[in-house]
Amino acid sequence: MINRLTPTFEGNHLFSMNMPHLQVLGARHDWSPDAYLCRRSFVHHEHVILAATPPSPPPDDGGDQIHEAQDLLPVIDLECLNHDKNNIKLDEACKQWGLFRLVNHGPSKLLSGTPILTPSGTALKRAPQNINLLEGFNMTLGQLSQFQSQFPVLESFRLSLMEYGEHLTRIATTLFEGIAKNLDLKLQPSRSYVAESTGIVRVYRYPKSSNYNVGLGLEVHTDSSVLSILNQENEVSGLEVLKDDQWLTVKPISNTLVVNLGDMMQAISDDKYKSVTHRVKLNNKKQRISICYFVFPDEDLEIESSKYRTFTYSEFRAQVQQDNKIAGYKVGLPRFERT
Ligand SMILES: O=C(O)CCC(=O)C(=O)O
Ligand SMILES: [Fe+2]
């Protein structure tokens, strides 16, 4: 797969040319277009952005105590999960962490690519609350067929994305089934909670930087997804997770995916599981590349819980986009709390 994908990326001009169109195919699920522009424009306009918006200091590190979570993070074996009826380890990981490493998930080399350059950023209409120093693109799996006719030159890339999406959907489905059993969830029949069609594959490149004043690679946030499955492609650290008020580095380990629970999972589980708070710091030695797969429920599936008013994922997404646009940040689940 590496060989099929890499030539597509080679000569970054291909993506420089096509990025505006790629955006149309799939904007990041919970970002306003403005925030998205900001995120992808730093390469050419870093000085402009930083001058326009003073960087906010990195969030409190709990007394600068950053711990490595390498030995603490729960590890889930996908193959064992298939055999166990109630998987206590998975349940504990979801309850206590909201994030775990995943091993034995299938092919060791899932996807690889080279960094992608974006075109010059368009002027920002509004400064978002935080500047995120990264560039990348999102692809919604359900829209890949449009991609075929619009960009025949990227056909091998499209096929790779499809294969990656199928593989990751299989993983997400297995994990979700395990979680549903553990929580004894009453699922709506014939509806998908981890729909491939709404799945998003996102590739990001974070520049290297030793200057903490420039801000974070990706601000403190929770994901809107049911599950997010992260491939820390070039094994460069940066991801940190908030656990018991301390930031822990999630060190990359080869052939090991990182799974984190998102807002939809929190609501579906009636708050038994938490959407994990995380952020990405810039690495001071190397640029970092991550490939993330976000999976969502069918857009019109009604999520019922005792904590939140009934809502659909499309309502949630619209609310997040509106908050991003008006307030400059995501409010998320608190917007849907029962009063
Ligand atoms: O790049 C990463 O490691 C994490 C990215 C992330 O948290 C996100 O896109 O929501
Ligand atoms: Fe995230």
From TrEMBL:
Keywords per UniProt: Iron, Metal-binding, Oxidoreductase
InterPro entries per record: IPNS-like_FE2OG_OXY, IPNS-like_sf, Iron_ascorbate_oxido_reductase, Oxoglu/Fe-dep_dioxygenase_dom
Top-level taxon in the UniProt lineage: Eukaryota
Gene Ontology terms for molecular function: metal ion binding; oxidoreductase activity
Domain Fe2OG dioxygenase: 194-297
Keyword Iron included in the entry's annotation: yes
One Pfam family here: 2OG-FeII_Oxy
Transmembrane segments: none
Entry's family note: Belongs to the iron/ascorbate-dependent oxidoreductase family.
Record's protein name: Fe2OG dioxygenase domain-containing protein
Organism: Flemingia macrophylla
